[in-house]
Hints:
The protein has helices at 9-14, 57-62, 211-216, 245-248, 292-297, 299-302, 304-307, 312-318, 346-349, 370-397, 412-438, and strands spanning 5-6, 24-30, 39-41, 52-54, 66-68, 73-75, 89-91, 93-96, 103-111, 118-125, 138-143, 150-156, 175-176, 201-207, 220-227, 232-239, 265-268, 283-290, 328-338, 352-353, 487-490, 495-498, 545-546, 553-554.
Amino acid sequence: GASRQVAVALVLSGCGLTSASSGYTLRESYSGLDFFSKFKFWTATDPSQGTVAYVGAEEAQRLGLIQATLQEAIIRPDSTSVLVPGQGRKSVRIQSRNAYNAGLFVAKINHMPTGCGVWPAFWMYGEDAEHVWPAWGEYDILEGVHEQAHVRTTLHTGATCSQQSLVPGQDFLGMWEAGESKPSADMCNVDAPQQFYNQGCSQRGPPGSFGMDFNRNGGGTYAAEWDPVEGHIRTWFWPAGQEPFELQSQGVGGLSTDLWGKPFSFFRLRPADCPAQHFLNMRIVFNINFCGDLGESLWQDGCPALAEQMSCQEYVDRHPEKFANAYWSIGRVDVYQQSGPFPANLGERIMFNFEGSEPAQSVGGLRVNGLAVFGIVATVVGAIGTLLVLSVEYKKQRRQVGGGAGDLVMFGAEADAALEAISDQFSSCASSIRSMMGQQQPPPQPWQQVRTPSQENPYMGVQGLTSPHVSMSSMGSSMESSATSSWWGHDAEREVRVPPRGPLSSWARLPPPGPERVPVPPMRSGMLLPGGLPAHQGRSSSEPNRSSETGCMLM
């Protein structure tokens, strides 16, 4: 019979186990004395036809082209040798040993290479022997040539990746680079008509985001968000000292990109325009190239006085002294991933084939058959059972709950009633998982339909809080459930996800009270919500959150 595929992440999301808006947590840092140990050195011929000869780690170290300290990593080209034609200037290209399929990549850069003939870039791409570029895509976060003062941020893909629906000023703060015979280079296909070969879809950043102005201002910070689940690639830039506070502290406590305002660059990843599968298994790259495809094409415009005297290649060969300032000083590169016990993109990455008669669909190379589903579901149900036992035992104590700064504090009967509501929540989640295994989901309730931030809803939501929770510190651990992070709606064929935008107060709306809902006792005046807010400044305690798909109660 036909395979029945179920996205288990719907139930996990409903039970509060996943959240696409749960924020980012720092997972990896490229910094300090071991900076270069996390990269491989490219020594093959430059595929971009540059006037360059990339060297390995040992030679780069011997020539003084790389240096790592506690504060920075330095990458520079040879700036002493006069070259014969065709020799290529020695330089460095490194790419991370780790490959990624999503994440937030934040680079603090103190100084970047600049000058006529120079083509530096900080970028990501995916490729292996069976998937030749651009099969797994390329994302140029920071790129430019010659003496430009603004950055180029570009995607390069195979066919079927268009960004023609995007509007500068509305979707992103930058502007489109011009194509060969069209005003906007908004087609990512490297063979796109009316664009230069391999131009890709290219957007221009703000003044001072590249070149000498960038260096005069003390550098800056780039943040590149690649989120195939929410369906976008976004890039921000801040001059030195103007980056968000949470980046200065490396995201301690988590961070949310939705608080950063409109990015200067934005690309949409959705099936109708540019499927997310165009970008897979990408690695982080830093390099310093010379001339090449991009530099040669812009030589006349970028360095007109020199272009009247010699070609870009001749300039690079004859004038090594001009490249003493063409170096990277990289403070650090931090990699953040969505926080939570399960990946935020679990539903989109894994489609389970319960009958096991054919391979499961996958995004990002993760394939699982039906047997794995039962293991995961059994684990989830077991965890829920453990929490139920703990809550029942705790109810017997009838003692104070919480007490830490910023925790919700309840006493006596109030604690009993709250724990009863939590028990009902987990019971509802378990019931939903069981019904998923052999029965159809119940029809959606009115509050489970798709909502958007622009729709008005009179029911009280969570105001000004990013992750309301109830913490039971006396149990030795906490039981937390995020506020409703996204709405799920139904149509005949698919689940539709509408991601939140902005603070919770702009999108989290609760359903009207009804007889089937478990009441939570009213809060006492002066009780504390997460973050130390008095109870009257948070949501009404009589309006518990309900997860949108399973009907689970979220405290």
